[in-house]
Structure formats: C-alpha cells, structure tokens
Design goal:
The chain has 197 residues and is of the alpha/beta class. It is built from 6 helices and 7 strands, in the order βαβαββααβββαα. The chain has a single domain, classed as Alpha-Beta Complex (Maf protein). Helix content is 31%, strand content 28%. The structure holds inosinic acid.
Length: 197
C-alpha cells in the first residue's frame, strides 16, 4: 500500500467474482489510488423483485459498520424464453437446488432460447457520503449441454450473443469481462471513480 492509496472494500464471499473484478481493476489506472480489498462483513440479503433492490438493501444494511468506501455486487440469471425470466432473483437458490442440468431439463425440446445476466453494483462513496448504482446486462442463449471449465455459476450454459460459438465457461476471465454484465457495470464504476479522484 502506498500513501496515495485508499482502501476500497468489496463485500463478497465469492472468490470467483472477486478475481474477475480484480482483473478489471488491475487493468485500470485506479490501482495507484485504490487498494481493492475483499471484506467478509456480511450485509443482509433480502428476497426482492429486482437485483437492484437486493443490492440497495445490502449496502444500506452495513453502512454503520464501514469506515471507508465500499461496494456490493449482485447478479441474476434470467431465462427469458421459454421461462419468462426464471430464475432471476432466485438464481442462487435455483443453482443450488436444480443446478445447470436442471435448468437445461426445463427448456428441453422448447426450441429457441433467450437468456441474460444482470449485474448491479451499489457503491458507498465515502468522500461525498453518497450511494451510487451501476448496472450491466449481457444477452445470449442457452447451450444444449454444459460446456467449458472456466468461470462459475451458470457460465457453462450461457452463450453470449457477442461470441455465439462459446459459453462463458469456454473463455478467459479477461474475455468474459469485455462483454459480461459484471464487466459493463464495473467499467461504469471505474469511470465514476476516475472522475472523482
Ligand atoms: P449473486 O449475485 O452472487 O447472489 O449471484 C446469484 C447467482 O448467480 C449465484 O448462484 C451465482 O453463482 C450466479 N452468478 C452470478 N454471476 C454470475 C456469472 O457471472 N456467471 C455465472 N453465474 C453467475
């Protein structure tokens, strides 16, 4: 840590996510100003109707426990066709209970699929004492079977429209970050931090 650097805490227990975000941060010029640091402070996770509501509640639930700038990031996976957006805000639960195989069973024989990921970052920015929201979204389709061994969560079954031959699990974190929901949300966060140095 150098004397120009401030702590920027990422409240997450998911090391895959942390590593994706670290990859984005290390590429930006922000490392000279901020030290991205994982924090195990546990925000309250509510069941809500949108990913944004979950992230906003989380950040507010730990405001009194944090002394530096910090952020949370929430994501959801939505199978728009034929599942009308399921699992959406139930993504974690459904991944645990049904798994990727279970999702593919639900859409078997249904023809065309459409899916997307959403990412919402809620940042508490200490210098101005405000909460900022940054969002990202990536559209794609479902693979017929699980493919690839990189990434995490629903990555083995999601094919982004930008790379129609590959699932997210078949590309590197760097390639995923260029197009992913999380990559888009974090590039907005980084722009904000750069403008406010
Ligand atoms: P959460 O925001 O970490 O709660 O994510 C909700 C669910 O979506 C979890 O089961 C994650 O594993 C999954 N998930 C979040 N981000 C991604 C991603 O980038 N790729 C694949 N699955 C993800």
């Amino acid at each position: 840590m150098n004397e120009d650097q401030k702590y920027l805490y990422f409240l997450t227990g998911n090391f895959n996510k942390f590593n994706e975000v670290l990859e984005i941060f290390n590429k930006s010029k922000l490392t000279q100003y901020y030290l991205l640091t994982p924090s195990r402070t546990e925000p309250i996770e509510i069941q809500a109707n949108s990913v944004r509501e979950v992230a906003e509640f989380k950040i507010n639930s730990v405001l009194d426990q944090m002394n530096d700038s910090f952020f949370v990031e929430d994501a959801g996976f939505f199978v728009d066709e034929p599942l009308y957006g399921f699992p959406g805000v139930y993504s974690s639960y459904v991944l645990t209970v049904l798994g990727n195989e279970g999702i593919l069973k639900l859409v078997e024989g249904e023809g065309e699929t459409k899916a997307h990921f959403e990412s919402v970052i809620a940042l508490y920015f200490k210098p101005t004492d405000e909460i900022k929201i940054f969002e990202g979204k990536v559209e794609g389709t479902l693979a017929k079977k699980l493919r690839g061994d990189k990434g995490f969560g629903f990555d083995p079954i999601f094919i982004p429209n930008e790379l129609p031959d590959k699932t997210f699990s078949e590309i590197s974190a760097e390639e995923k970050n260029k197009i992913s929901h999380r990559g888009q949300a974090f590039s907005k966060l980084i722009d904000f931090l750069k403008e406010n140095i």
